[in-house]
């Protein structure tokens, strides 16, 4: 298969890189990272002006109507800039869930404000005994009310509403609803705040069935892998620049073969992840039969590669890689947090195996 970006896709990628370089440089990223929510209203407004909050959603809901490959390109650049705040949780995750499970009326009610930048949202999935598979969720809604606890909910404190995945449906809870308690959790990635969300007979509006979630989660998973690619690329860039300037024995360390091999491996892992992510975006956009498998391959590879690239970058930097002033450890934190989010490599290897077995069983029955 021959795959190349179109002129408009290249323009989107380049313009996003310039935008984040200007609006969210390292100093701004660190400033937001040190706040309670990592959210800045002015930056959010600028993201909306760029059309990023509605990038893949239909124009009838205020979106831009671009494809899944364009989403991958955007998220790659957010990963490269280590963008703080709720873009992923609101647009990629909550927006994709709303598009997948809700009626046109609910899309106008909840998705349209997201596209216009007027609302922020997140999705509560994980429980103490649950995995990233929606079938493992135990919480139920009774008489339109929720009780229980959700963990590792990103950006919950600044969300206008929270989408809750329950065993018997998908529900929307207003952030000001009675019986709702949001508490901060410690997080490895300091640019993405996590929370415990507790429900105590909290009113909730059902918007769809949990059986419609897999495609939305596939979009979010592929986008997270694209973020990892952006972080890997930035880690590689920082490391190569350091290897050119840091001297040992009177010459740059980049002239030593051992360092060159490490950088070459980082480049290979980054480019391989990028190829897998772009294909997953294309497969999702084309509704290809192998879309789910492609997403799992991309996340599986990017999860392992993100950790490996971070390890190699810090090793080349030596003691400098561990200093607070160096941004490298911040990208490594994001990579480690994203490695497990929406399933680590082991989860997706098992998912691929299950899909292959299910496909084989279906073929045998049809024969």
Q: What do these coordinates show?
A:
With 367 residues, the chain is of the alpha+beta class. It folds into three domains: 7-115, Orthogonal Bundle (Butyryl-Coa Dehydrogenase, subunit A, domain 1); 121-210, Butyryl-CoA Dehydrogenase, subunit A, domain 2, CATH 2.40.110; 212-360, Butyryl-CoA Dehydrogenase, subunit A, domain 3. It is 54% helix and 14% strand. The protein contains eleven helices and ten strands. The strands form three sheets. It has a four-stranded mixed β-sheet with strand order 1-4-5-8, with helices on one face. It has a four-stranded antiparallel β-sheet with strand order 2-3-7-6, with no helix packed on it. Helix 9 packs antiparallel against helix 10 (328-340) and helix 9 (291-317) packs antiparallel against helix 11. The longest helix has 33 residues, at 213-245. The radius of gyration is 21 Å and the shape is globular. The two termini are 30 Å apart. The model has no long low-confidence stretch (mean pLDDT 94).
Topology of this structure?
Blueprint: H1 7-23, H2 26-33, H3 41-49, H4 68-81, H5 87-101, H6 104-115, E1 121-124, E2 141-142, E3 145-154, E4 161-166, E5 169-174, E6 180-185, E7 194-203, E8 205-208, H7 213-245, E9 247-248, E10 251-252, H8 257-285, H9 291-317, H10 328-340, H11 345-366
Parallel strand pairs: 1-4
Antiparallel strand pairs: 2-3, 3-7, 4-5, 5-8, 6-7, 9-10
Helix pairs in contact: 1-4, 4-7, 4-8, 5-6, 5-7, 7-8, 7-9, 7-10, 8-9, 9-10, 9-11
